[in-house]
Specification:
The protein has ten helices and eight strands. The chain is α/β, with parallel strands linked by helices. The longest helix is centred in the first third of the chain and has 26 residues, at about 10-35. An eight-stranded mixed beta sheet has the order 3-2-1-4-5-6-7-8, with helices on both faces. Helix 6 crosses helix 10. The termini are far apart. Bound molecules: NADP nicotinamide-adenine-dinucleotide phosphate and 2-acetamido-2-deoxy-beta-D-glucopyranose (4 copies). This is Retinol dehydrogenase 14. InterPro entries: NAD(P)-bd_dom_sf (IPR036291), SDR_fam (IPR002347). GO terms for molecular function: oxidoreductase activity.
Length: about 325
């Protein structure tokens, strides 16, 4: 006699018991995810502050803009797709009653676009209190080149923000104390950035997105170091696994299991919490060069905090984005 007893061993009841078990596990797991999701509860206001957010037309960026609008901030949405940007802006103004929401065209994958955008901002804005590098692009299975001949993921996620930060640094210094927030990702753990192959256009098919997020963390750490003493803080974050547009390029048939797995991901609103925390919280006013997850400081792996490697990435990136003598140095 077994220690358990199956009351009615027909297949239907076994399957329904199994299904019940699976659903219970799924339910408990979802509850656990909700419970551990870091939330920025503070009611702190952002009246009189200007926040520049890249990729604010969708996903986490849009939720970040929506929340900051409700806190009274003046918001510059730096976007590539005007259609969705206009829709997002209208919706945010309607919901928040805050009319100080502006859209500026920015394609981070194009150095020309980044330069035009930065010129415009430099001329039209008197200060930036928070710069949020949020925009991101992933297309692991279809490698393309930017107009500048750079692998598209690295061009959008690393080189664009690197160039933009340089071109806005004078304005940021004028605005100090101010903050730079970089939306990176825990998936940096899945790869290593090869410093001998910084424009991986013909190699490493699967790793481009992870590599660009690895570069985000290295860039943030080096930027924080270079900006020490300027009252400009730089912090990085992982937003969590979020059900957003970033998965839109996952091809068939991988998109089928993906649709199921995404049911466990956080919402974009939950995904915006750590960005909001780093943009607004008094707790991190004097903190720089740190990495956050669920609104809490989080450790980085030893292989990503090696300073000599950050310096190499910095120097090589400066060449790839063609920084000139006339451009500001950081
Ligand atoms: N979702 C996750 O699970 C997850 C996890 C870790 C980190 N992240 C990071 O979170 C950030 C936000 O992503 P998301 O999840 O909210 O995805 P999303 O909904 O796809 O949003 C990405 C945003 O970036 C913009 N963008 C893409 N390429 C651009 C370019 N060349 N120039 C200007 N903007 C560009 C997109 O604009 P278009 O609408 O024009 O494409 C969109 O607004 C990214 O940095 C991503 O790497 C996300
Ligand atoms: C790959 O991307 C290019 C440029 O965006 C696009 O024209 C092409 O249709 C894509 N190919 C596939 C197989 O998705
Ligand atoms: C920004 O504008 C100031 C003058 O307002 C100018 O001195 C500076 O060179 C400009 N910076 C860039 C990167 O264009
Ligand atoms: C940074 O802020 C401190 C405290 O407000 C101030 O004393 C100092 O002069 C500032 N430094 C710079 C470089 O602006
Ligand atoms: C931040 O630094 C300033 C000056 O260096 C100090 O006056 C202030 O108390 C610090 N704030 C926090 C929250 O640590």
């Amino acid at each position: 006699m077994a220690w358990y007893e199956i009351p009615n061993t027909n297949a239907v009841s076994i399957y329904s018991a199994l299904l019940f078990g699976v659903l219970t596990v799924v339910f408990v797991f979802r509850l656990w995810l909700k419970a551990t999701c870091g939330k920025f509860e503070s009611k702190v206001r952002m009246d009189g502050k200007t926040v520049l957010i890249t990729g604010a037309n969708s996903g986490i960026g849009k939720e970040t803009a929506r929340d900051l609008a409700k806190r009274g901030a003046r918001i510059i949405m730096a976007c590539r797709t005007m259609e969705t940007a206009n829709k997002a802006r209208d919706q945010i103004i309607k919901e928040s009653g805050n009319e100080n929401i502006f859209i500026k065209k920015l394609d981070l994958s194009s150095q020309k676009s980044v330069r035009e955008f930065a010129d415009d901002i430099n001329k039209s804005e008197s200060k930036i209190d928070v710069l949020i590098h949020n925009a991101g692009y992933a297309n692991t299975f279809n490698k393309t080149k930017s107009v500048d001949g750079i692998e598209m993921t690295m061009a959008t996620n690393h080189y664009g923000p690197f160039l933009l930060t340089h071109l806005l640094i004078d304005l940021l210094k004028k605005s100090a104390p101010c903050r730079i927030v970089i939306v990176a990702s825990e998936c940096y753990r899945f790869c290593r950035l090869n410093l001998k192959n910084l424009n991986p256009i013909d190699t490493m098919p699967g790793y481009l997105y992870y590599v660009s997020k690895f570069a985000n963390v290295m860039f943030g750490l080096e930027l924080a170091r270079r900006l020490k003493g300027t009252n400009i803080t730089v912090n990085m974050l992982h937003p969590g696994m979020i059900d957003s547009g970033i998965w839109r390029n996952v091809p068939f048939p991988l998109n089928i299991p993906m649709a199921f797995i995404k049911g466990f991901f956080k919402t974009t609103e939950e995904g915006a919490q750590t960005s909001l925390f780093l943009a607004c919280s008094e707790d991190v006013k004097n903190i720089s060069g740190k990495y956050y997850l669920d609104c809490k400081e989080w450790d980085l792996q030893p292989y990503i905090i090696e300073e000599d490697k950050h310096k190499i990435l910095w120097e090589e990136s400066a060449k790839i984005v063609k920084l000139t003598e006339k451009d500001p140095k950081i």
